[in-house]
# Entry
Amino acid sequence: MLAEEIILAPVVTEKSNDELQQGKYTFRVNKKATKVDIARAVEKLFEVKVLKVNTMMVKGKEKRVGYHVGKTSDWKKAIVTIDTDPSEVTYLAKGGKVTKVSKKYKDSIDEFMGA
# Structure
């Protein structure tokens, strides 16, 4: 699955706006996507370091239009926690040499609110 097929849309609510300061972003995702798929897609699309992914299935609600009763579809929601203070990661490579990870990560998702 492509990253664009996994992350469908941001979920903008009062609660999700309050969690932005803690580095938590809420997305509507594909129902078949796993937590690992979601983390890779967010890292690829937004160039951030994902720390944690929480997912939940949201049940559809019963709606009525006049006499007719229907149901909205079920969907999957993911709350992604990103690293708000990304630092360089160093590790020992083969031969005991100290190696740094050269990838630069952002500390927020600017495109989330349409900025």
Notes: Residues 35-46 form the longest helix (12 residues). The CA atoms of residues 4 and 41 lie 8 Å apart. Residues 3-102 form a domain with the Alpha-Beta Plaits fold (CATH 3.30.70.330).
